[in-house]
Each structure stands twice: as C-alpha cells, then as structure tokens.
Specification:
alpha/beta, Rossmann fold, 6-stranded mixed beta sheet, 10 helices, 10 strands
Length: 258
C-alpha cells in the first residue's frame, strides 16, 4: 500500500444516538508532514483519528491512505501503514511485560523469533526504553508507559504515526522527553492535542476543528496568531505566544531559553 498521502474527502460521521461528530471534513496530508488536529473538547478530533486506520467507518465520504480508500476489506494493510497511539497507554498495554507488549504486533504478523526480537529491541531503543523490557507495564510511570505505547506501534514499522494527546497527563520532564521523541521521528505524524505549545514546537501545520467542521488548515504560526479564529473555536494561543499581564512581554519557550 502506498503511504504518501492521508486524505479525507467530505468525511461525515454520526454516532448511533444521532450525534454528528464530523461534517464534510476534507484535507490532504503528504508524506513526511507533521500535522496537528486541534479543537475544543467535542470538536471531533479523536473521532477523526479513529477513521485514519479504520477503527471507525464513515457515515459518508471517504478516507484514503495513498491510493487506497480505507474499507473493511483492506484494514490489515491500512493498520500496517498507520500506527495509532491512544491517549491512555493502559488501553494499549495489556501483556505481562513490556517485551511481550512490544512483541505482540510483530508476532501476530507471523515474523520469525529472530525478527521479533530485533523489532522489539529496535523499537524500545528508539524510545530509550530498552531497560524496561522485563518490567510489567503497571509498574511503569506515566512517561514510561507513553514511551512503551509508542514502541508497540514502532515495532510494526508504520509509515504514519497517529497520536491522540501524546503529552496528556505527563509531568514536565516526561513531557519534554516525549516532545524530543516526536521531533526525532521522520514518520508522517498526525497528532491531536490540547498542548498547543507542544504543537507549536513539533508540527508545521495545523487543522482546526470546531463542532465537527474543519474551520482552518494552514501553517501553525499563522493560525496561532489569528486570535479571532482561535476565540471562535474556543481556543487560546499557546502560552509561549501569550503576553505577561505584568510586563507585557511574550513568554519565552523552554526550548528557546535552553
């Protein structure tokens, strides 16, 4: 399956109770881009992400990965290409040890023992978690769980990483570690987050959703500077772009101050 485009065309989705979560959403993401999907609670962000690897099926419209429309018939290929990291790592980690969790995907692809071991080793090394291999997931910190959850996806060799709130619930040190990982990955990245300072640092492009509709799609700095747009979508600029009430100066991001 080609992986050079992730596209939605007039994507609509309604839940069984009739709630319209996505309304005519259209966009195209190209290979290598880092794109954030932002919006207030209930905007449709997580619902959109769950369409990108077939967890949800559109009510109408289409999702395309490369030259293939996502359907029930090609979900296996889609999920090899699009790796999903959930907001809560406990939804992703369910085996007795970290090693077993990371090995789960490659084993289910029918890889040899040697290939599984290599995939696990490389994936854990990529997130600096090799020393955690023998630990049970419930003994890990929040930041460690997040890194291991990412490793379970990396072990499948996806071309596209889809991440729902990757820095949610992390302390400042763990958050900085995850941001460093995201910046280092060369994959196409599609990220939802309320952490707009992280978005400003990691993503060059932002898609803004509001009440299930796409309200804006463009360069991160340009959209974050549009105070009217953000206010209309119940958002605020990143803290690093807000001005101090006492001195009137904008905050200096930690990465810039370092």
């Amino acid at each position: 399956m080609s992986h050079h485009i992730v596209a939605a065309d007039a994507l609509c989705f309604s839940y069984p109770d009739g709630t319209a979560a996505l309304k005519e959403v259209t966009f195209c993401i190209h290979h290598g881009e880092s794109v954030a999907v932002i919006g207030a609670n209930g905007a449709g962000k997580s619902t959109l992400l769950q369409h990108l690897n077939g967890f949800l099926t559109p009510t109408s419209g289409t999702v395309r990965i490369g030259d293939a429309t996502v359907t029930r018939d090609n979900l296996c290929d889609v999920r090899k290409t699009v790796g999903m990291v959930f907001q809560n790592p406990d939804d992703q980690l369910f085996m007795p040890t970290v090693y077993e969790d990371v090995a789960f995907g490659p084993r289910n692809l029918g890889m040899s023992v040697a290939d599984v071991e290599r995939k696990v080793r490389d994936a854990l090394a990529a997130v600096d978690a090799g020393h955690l291999a023998a630990k049970p997931p419930y003994r890990l910190s929040g930041g460690e769980k997040k890194r291991v959850a990412i490793a379970t996806v990396l072990a499948m060799d996806p071309a596209i990483l889809v991440m729902d709130e990757p820095t949610a619930g992390l302390d400042p040190f763990a958050r900085r570690e995850v941001i460093g990982l995201l910046k280092a990955f060369s994959h196409t990245k599609i990220i939802t987050s309320h952490d707009l300072d992280m978005v400003a640092e990691v993503c060059g492009r932002v898609i803004v959703l509001h009440a299930g509709q796409l309200r804006a799609d463009g360069p991160t700095g340009q959209l974050f500077a549009d105070r009217s747009l953000l206010a209309a979508c119940h958002l605020e600029p990143p803290l690093s772009m807000q001005h101090c009430a006492l001195c009137g100066r904008a905050a200096t991001p930690l990465s810039a101050a370092a």
